[in-house]
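Troubleshooting log. The previous structure file for this entry was overwritten by mistake, so regenerating from the original sequence record. Sequence copied from the archived sheet and checked twice against the printout by T.R.
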Amino acid sequence: MADICRTCKLNAKREYWHMLPVTKNFFKVMLGNFERELRIPREFVANFGGRLSGSFTLRGPSRNEWKVKVRREEEDVLFSRGWDRFVSDHGIDIHDFLVFSYVGDSTFEVMVFDHTGCEREGTHFTNVNLSDSSCRCTLHAEENDNESDFGMSGESNNVVENVGDDNDYDVNNDDDYDDKEEDDDDEEAEEDLEESFSYARHPGTSVKKAQKCYISSRRTVTERERERARNISDDYVKRYKSTGVPVVGVVMLPTHVYKGLYLTIPKDWALKYMITRDHQVELKVGGEHNFWLVGCRWTHGGQCQFRPRWAEFVLDNNLEEGDVCVFELVQKGNLKANRRPVFNVRIFRVVQEVVPLTPVRMV
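Regenerated output below.
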């Protein structure tokens, strides 16, 4: 390959930064404490002549947008306030590879690649966090109706919990919701539902964003089988009380595992044991090295919910309606100490034979 002279290099640099169209790109590998702040390359900052200040819009692969503040630290400019939400909502992990494209109007378009070198598929279905909550499939608007029906139908034991007090067995149905919280959740659902039908702004296209949901492929199950799973999990929770470790069990609803794909933690339990700010939790199944990082969100209605990457946990563990997940809080979180909560998760299945869920594309 022929050498390029210094003059040509300087001319190419000037042409690129000052003569070519506005779109400029840089990439970052997620290392260190990337979840809190991210430094923009100095070369990139230098060629923008101080225009990188204030706040910016980060547009994800879903075409939704997140507002992020930048701050200066001597010669560096860093994505700061709001960056942690972008990271958590997109399930960005260490060693992920992000490509930032500046497209003008204080906006970066961002692509997310994982350790395999391929795009993270879920980032194309991540919705802007409108109300301190986020999920990949906005069809979760039906969650409120479904949970209400579940509680009124007589199957009120959709949650079993042990909070380490004198109660051997606590059944919690719809007591987590008051009228005000239901109104707040309804507003969030309506806003997210509107997002699900917004048009993707790819050049030259007018195609609605597709939302992925799932249907069960397992055989028909009986009420006796459902009751058996609940009873076994109930017995486990009662026995676990003696360890002193906080534990809560939740029966999976359709909106937890088929559409919507988020999980609400019982309110009283969450207020007592969970960090009351948005954060990540570590869910372990069957061993130290088999874990998932899942985003935990608090809604305006005061609900604590597992949302970002909960869908991955559901799919990887083949969860189905009626299965019971028992969450054992083996390590409490501390944001100041940069320590996330850790749960051991026990799964009590309605049917032991596992059949993967079938994806359905909803438009």
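Confidence is low (pLDDT under 50) at residues 130-157, 161-211. Archived copy saved in two places this time.
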